[in-house]
Write a structure and sequence with these properties.
It is found in: Plastid, Chloroplast. The protein has 546 residues and is of the alpha/beta class. It is 39% helix and 16% strand. The protein folds into two domains: 247 residues, UDP-N-acetylmuramoyl-L-alanine:D-glutamate ligase; 225 residues, TIM Barrel (Alpha-Beta Barrel). Bound molecules: adenosine-5'-diphosphate (ADP), (4-amino-2-methylpyrimidin-5-yl)methyl dihydrogen phosphate and magnesium ion.
Length: 546
């Protein structure tokens, strides 16, 4: 039984002297306030849940605004109430419309929450007008809270204006003196300083000192807009000391709402009782982890994708690929009909033998055959692969892949664009892409590929004028995106271990082999050899880790 905590008397405007008519509370609030003390009298225990009230705009796209605040608070174990200042129509492309909420209705929302549930910390986001700021300040005077975190949202990451002219004056005169933590991004810091340049670390430090003079107890200048820097550093200034919070830049299209999420995470940590510097550190960690876990999220077609705030509760990235398992890239058999003809076997026989030897995925690759023959070969091979439950993809030819309902397709850089292939094949087919460079890998990921084939790692004669990238080039491609990677090009029994040696990029899943499997008298035995060598290579790296 929780010890009955002495409930703070509800400080209600009616007992606090005159309150401007525009925000005089409606009588029933008085009853609700009284009921809280009634509960205390009959001894009901109550768990003291940390509470944040967010006063911000609604982002229809779900990534920023009160949506980001609610999810961030939920992820951090804090109860979040809301007072909506504006509705916005926005998505991953930008802001298409803003509808400010009438300020008297903003006042009603604030009173409803603060006169009943109350708040430990208030966090503000989009405040579209000076009247909105004045209304908030009046209510804060009547319902004081432990801390006020202000994210001075004026320009969204997508570059859209989110606050009307004239709010700077109200912000400076009314809200900043009531602010405990102010969290401007670089464009917002510049706006607060009348357009001064805030684009370097040194200028961030100077801005923190100048903005601190406007009244906030702490200023946190966020460095997410630092261009050309791999260090996403934020600077916290308390009037005497500067504290820097560093993080490596995370390459991701999903950065919408990062600022809102950082500020609401700070508010949540303060509500849980952290000191400001601990709160900022914890919030920075949360945003970094959330960005990392959101990289693979693909929602919307614009460049401003949302974060997966509740990534600790769900693992969408694996859901997104239920049709494809990265470890199926372990031994990737690429058929070659001329080799199979040379050894007197059909492609489907070769497919059966290589799967029985341990191949984990098969690619039917035909550069010469007529479409009709290619389709027949693909259908016969697919039938075999389906019997063993091994995925089978078609090289280059989207039409053949569609015609035989293959499990997917493998595209070269000059083939049908990934987005078109995805639009045609749908979300449940496998799309692999050949990539030689980090840029190609980044693009493959952003456009929705499931895996990357990278090489040629070694010189090969199964593909004409194929630039060799070496193990180093392979690793650069691996590290450029979260996509699983299979190494290809001149892979033989005697160099598999070099390719798979540890420390190995976590994206590298296996090797693709052509002549090492099919220019052999016995395909099944060849596949078994590759599987044995891979097992040693993986075991070695595992044992080395141990
Ligand atoms: N690409 C990135 N990689 C790592 N951290 C980032 C990245 N972009 C922003 N951040 C961090 O996210 C937080 C929000 O910063 P920022 O994006 O500048 O705010 P806003 O969303 O208001 O523009 C800061 O802690 C910043 O350092
Ligand atoms: C309703 C609303 N509030 C805030 C932001 C800023 O979000 P960000 O700058 O992180 O994209 C936004 N885009 N929409
Ligand atoms: Mg941002």
């Amino acid at each position: 039984m929780l010890a009955l905590q002495k409930l703070r008397p509800v400080r209600h405007p009616l007992v606090q002297g005159a309150v401007p008519k525009s925000i005089r509370p409606i009588p029933q609030f008085v009853r609700m306030a009284a009921s809280e003390s009634a509960t205390a009298d009959i001894g009901l225990s109550s768990v003291k849940v940390p509470r944040v009230l967010t006063v911000a705009g609604s982002d229809s796209g779900g990534g920023a605004g009160i949506q980001a605040d609610i999810k961030t608070c939920a992820a951090l174990g804090v109860f979040c109430t809301t007072a909506i200042t504006a509705l916005t129509a926005q998505n991953t492309i930008g802001v298409q419309g803003i509808y400010p909420v009438p300020v008297d209705f903003l006042a009603k929302q604030l009173q409803s929450v603060l006169s009943d549930i109350g708040a430990d910390v208030v966090k503000t986001g989009m405040l579209p007008s000076a009247e909105c700021i004045e209304t908030l300040c009046s209510v804060l005077d009547s319902f004081p809270v432990r801390a006020v975190v202000v994210d001075p949202v004026m320009v969204s990451t997508s570059g859209d204006e989110l606050a009307g002219a004239g709010i700077l004056d109200a912000l400076g005169k009314k809200l900043l003196p009531r602010t405990d933590v102010l969290t401007p991004n670089l464009p917002e810091a510049s706006k607060l300083l009348g357009g001064a340049s805030v684009t370097t670390l040194e200028e961030m430090r100077k801005a923190a000192v100048e903005i601190h003079k406007m009244g906030p107890r702490y200023v946190l200048i966020k460095g997410g807009h630092l261009s050309g820097s791999d260090d996403m550093v934020d600077i916290l200034y308390d009037g005497s000391e500067m504290h820097e919070y560093h993080a490596s830049r995370i390459e991701s299209r999903n950065t919408h709402g990062t600022g809102c999420s950082l500020a609401s995470a700070i508010a949540a940590e303060l509500a849980k009782g952290s000191h400001i510097r601990q709160a900022v550190q914890a919030a920075k960690e949360y945003v970094k982890e959330t960005m990392q876990r959101s990289r693979e999220l693909r929602l919307g077609g614009g460049s401003q994708g949302p974060l997966n705030h509740l990534h600790r509760l769900n693992h969408w990235e694996s859901l997104g690929r239920s049709h494809f398992k990265p470890d199926s890239l372990l031994l990737y058999a690429v058929t070659d009909s001329s080799m199979n003809k040379h050894w007197g076997r059909s492609t489907s026989d070769a497919v059966k033998a290589v799967i029985e030897g341990g191949a984990t995925i098969v690619q039917i690759r035909e550069k010469e055959a007529e479409s009709g023959d290619f389709l027949k070969e693909a259908e016969a091979s697919l039938k075999v692969a389906r019997e063993y439950g091994v995925p089978l993809v078609i090289n280059d030819r989207l039409d053949i892949a569609l015609a035989c309902d293959a499990d997917g397709v493998h595209l070269g850089q000059s083939d049908v664009p990934i987005t078109r292939a995805r639009a045609i094949l749908g979300p449940n087919k496998i799309i692999g892409v050949s990539c030689k460079t980090p840029e190609q890998a980044q693009r493959a990921w952003e456009e929705g590929a499931d895996y990357i084939g990278s090489g040629g790692v070694y010189p090969t004669n199964t593909k004409q004028n194929n630039k060799t990238i070496g193990v180093e080039g392979l690793r650069k491609v691996c590290e450029a995106s979260p996509l699983p990677v299979v190494a290809i090009g001149g892979i033989k029994e005697n160099n598999v271990k070099e390719v798979m040696a540890s420390p190995r990029p976590k994206q590298l899943q296996g090797v693709a082999v052509v002549s090492g499997l099919f220019n052999q008298p016995d395909v099944q035995v060849a596949a078994k050899h590759f599987r044995a060598i891979l097992a040693e290579a993986l075991d070695e790296s595992y044992s080395r880790v141990l």
